[in-house]
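Z., the sequence and structure:
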Amino acid sequence: NTHGNASWLGPRLEAAFRKSNWSGTLSFWNSLKTSDKVTPYQAAMALLTMQNMGRDSLSRVREVRRFLRRNTAACNADFVNKLIGELLKHVDDDTPMVVKGIVDAICELNVQPCSQTYESLVSLHFNQKLYSKLLIIMEDMQMRKVQANTGTKVTLLKGSLKIADLSTAIELFCEVHPACPAYVSTEIAQMALQHKQGTRIIGLMESGRLPYDQQVLKLMAEMNVQLKDKKLAKRLQVCCAKIGLEGPEL
């Protein structure tokens, strides 16, 4: 009886994993995985064992999909978040694909990922420098109506700056600018001017979506000396006057 043996198999799986006994770990896992007593830690050890044995991402994703499909006790956001948390302690090049595969698997089983799930997914892809994938993840969140927390939005913003996605960066910055590092505002302003969209930043200040930022206005005025954008210079003058800052010469 596998369910009755779970209390015996689980500790032995964990002991085998700690001893780097990969074949032993998988042997215990194959006996344990049909039980509804599997913990996220034990499921993670099975996947990490496959990782240590050189199994590719598709093999790992297939294994976790089969496990979640037949184990309803594990097919919930709390279990999956804990499982992902363990995998993130031992990241390799395939981990982003494995974690994305886990998220896709629970979605296929009609389990809604939560903001914590996506926070882990976004952080992982950013840390692995997979910046172009972040926009896909963001669109997936929007499609599933999962509200990103502030930390996730800041990470998405940083990722959009890495790939010079100005529109995404500006929209996110309007939402989370109080939580952003100081360099973000000047980097966005600099990128906007390089794309001849300086007036867009001014418009967001004028509409109240962004604060009048002295550092940003100074930078834009300095850059506009080279750009010689008269429309921008006029609007900069008005903005600078509002916070008692000397504006650019016209």
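The chain has a mean pLDDT of 92. The radius of gyration is 25 Å.

Let me know what you think.
H.
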